[in-house]
């Protein structure tokens, strides 16, 4: 870690900036990718970036992260609308699950009644 601090101090003294290229093989920080990203290697970091930026075959605006915006730029009304949409979707899913469970219970009751009629 001391070596990394030395490199950063050297960059600061030279008024240098750190760029993504510095993390690439041969870059001044190539041995420290895990100190600047959440990943142990540049390859895994790039794979993650490819994943979140994937848009191939998606309609415009439907890429995984194309619609990300800073939280501070979203109005309270937009947040409320989004939260209401999430809540409605969750309630619809729960309602659908309850209906399926009720249908299964009704089917089981029908089978039990049919067995009792056959035996009776």
Describe the fold and architecture:
With 120 residues, this protein is mainly alpha-helical. The protein has 2 domains: 15-68, no CATH class; 75-108. Helices cover 59% and strands 0% of the residues. It contains 4 helices and no strands. The chain has helices spanning 2-13, 33-36, 42-52, 76-119. The longest helix is centred in the C-terminal third of the chain and has 44 residues, at 76-119. It starts with a helix and ends with a helix. The mean pLDDT is 80.
Fraction in beta strands: under 5%
**Secondary-structure element pattern, one letter each:** HHHH
* Helical content band: 55-70%
How would you state the average pLDDT, rounded?
80
* Structure class: mainly alpha
* Major sheet size, sense and barrel closure: none
- Any low-confidence stretches, pLDDT <50, length ≥5? none
Based on the model shown, name its key terms.
120 residues, 0% strand, mainly alpha
In brief:
With 120 residues, the chain is mainly α.
Question: Topology of this protein?
Answer:
Layout: H1 2-13, H2 33-36, H3 42-52, H4 76-119
């Amino acid at each position: 870690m001391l070596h990394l601090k030395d490199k950063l101090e050297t960059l600061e003294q030279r008024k240098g900036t750190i760029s993504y290229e510095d993390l690439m093989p041969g870059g001044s920080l190539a041995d420290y990718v895990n100190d600047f990203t959440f990943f142990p290697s540049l390859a895994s970091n790039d794979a993650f970036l490819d994943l979140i930026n994937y848009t191939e075959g998606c309609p415009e605006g439907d890429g995984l992260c194309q619609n990300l915006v800073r939280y501070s730029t979203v109005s309270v009304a937009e947040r409320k609308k989004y939260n209401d949409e999430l809540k409605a979707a969750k309630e619809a899913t729960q309602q659908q699950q309850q209906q399926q469970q009720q249908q299964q219970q009704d089917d089981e009751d029908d089978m039990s009644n049919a067995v009792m009629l056959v035996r009776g």
